[in-house]
Write a structure and sequence with these properties.
Elements lengths: L1 H39 L5 E3 L4 E4 L2 H8 L12 E4 L5 E2 L11 E3 L6 E2 L12 E3 L6 E2 L11 E3 L6 E2 L12 E3 L19 E3 L6 E2 L12 E4 L5 E3 L10 E4 L5 E3 L11 E4 L28 E5 L3 H4 L6 E2 L2 E6 L10
Parallel strand pairs: 2-3, 3-5, 4-6, 5-7, 6-8, 8-10, 9-11, 11-12, 13-15, 14-16, 15-17, 16-18, 18-19, 19-21
Antiparallel strand pairs: 1-2, 20-21
């Protein structure tokens, strides 16, 4: 008898557990159905409640979403994911929306202007190698901390990553050929690796990067407005090559600059190239605030007669960069 009673209890407990599981399964289906209905009214996306994710499966869905005025994310949605086949992120698609993370597919080749502008909570973007073009202001005022763009990107638009209060580190692949005021007003930026394919550096690209101590300019750069990092914390600028034109070096805009370093011959200062720089004065002129270091292998170009200075900069010859004084 005791055995029979025990078996009955076991059956009752098992049956009750099955009923509870069935109840919650029904509830989950109702929630997901409601989410799908809600998202269908805002661009035919799919919101996966438990993952707090908005998924765009086709370009048409994304285009419809981009056209919705006063867009709002579903409750709890923090992640946006784009499926393979989507080729571009339309302008202002997520303007000022509180998203935290973005997953891009390799099929995306272009991110249009203002696409993620003002997404202050956006901390992580999962880049893929298909991307070619990043539009104007596309990530301005976002919360990204480390930016490592994938190889294949060729152009980054005006102020695409400007005014990013959390940005600390930047890596630009050698495929990038053009940037313009791209990282202005990023006060926490500490290091940046510039592309070895960039030919022109414009004023304001690193303006107000007060935590940036050293700026290394690749040999590929032919034209540079040295005020590229005005009002920053830069203490040393290293020219790996010899630009054909340097414009408007205003020492007063570099209060901490103590070292200019050239790894080759003096810049050519080709006046015919001035047309590439808007309203710029030709010249690079110094003061006793800043010393100019050159490699002794180029001593005959820098100081053929033992000159103590060049355009107002005290000259110091060194055998290698290892001899540079430490940054204070």
């Amino acid at each position: 008898m005791k055995t029979n009673h025990l078996m009955v209890k076991i059956y009752l407990i098992t049956f009750s557990s099955l009923l509870v599981c069935l109840f919650f399964a029904c509830q989950k289906q109702e929630v997901n159905a409601a989410n799908k209905k809600n998202s269908a009214e805002h661009g035919k996306t799919e919101v996966i409640d438990l993952e707090q994710k908005m998924v765009f499966r086709t370009q048409e869905e994304l285009n419809q979403w981009a056209e919705v005025p006063d867009k709002k994310l579903g409750d709890g949605v923090k992640i946006v994911q784009f499926e393979e086949g989507i080729q571009k992120i339309p302008a202002k698609s997520f303007f000022n929306l509180p998203i935290y993370e973005v997953f891009l597919p390799s099929s995306v080749t272009e991110i249009e202007d203002y696409a993620f502008y003002g997404c202050e909570k956006l901390e992580s973007v999962h880049w893929q190698k298909g991307l070619k073009h990043i539009g104007w202001y596309s990530f301005k005022k976002t919360g990204i901390r480390e930016l490592l763009l994938p190889d294949g990107v060729t152009e980054v638009g005006y102020e695409a990553f400007a005014e990013m209060s959390n940005l600390v580190q930047v890596y630009l692949p050698d495929s990038i050929e053009k940037i313009s005021s791209t990282f202005s007003n990023c006060p926490k930026l500490e290091s940046i690796h510039l592309s070895n394919s960039i030919k022109i550096l414009h004023a304001g690209t690193l303006e107000n990067a007060i935590e940036l101590n050293e700026l290394i300019i690749p040999a590929s750069v032919q034209i540079i407005d040295v005020d590229v990092a005005a009002d920053s914390g830069v203490r040393r600028i290293v020219f790996q090559g010899s630009p054909q034109l340097i414009c408007r070096l205003n020492i007063k805009k570099y209060p901490n600059l103590g070292q200019l370093v050239f790894c080759s011959a003096p810049p050519a200062q080709d006046t015919d190239m001035m047309k590439e720089i808007e309203d710029g004065g030709l010249g690079i002129y110094g003061s006793n605030q800043c010393s100019l270091f050159y490699l002794n292998s180029f001593a005959t170009e820098w100081a053929p007669n033992g000159e103590p200075e060049w355009n107002g900069f005290p000259l110091i010859g060194i055998d290698s960069l290892d001899e540079l004084p430490p940054l204070e």
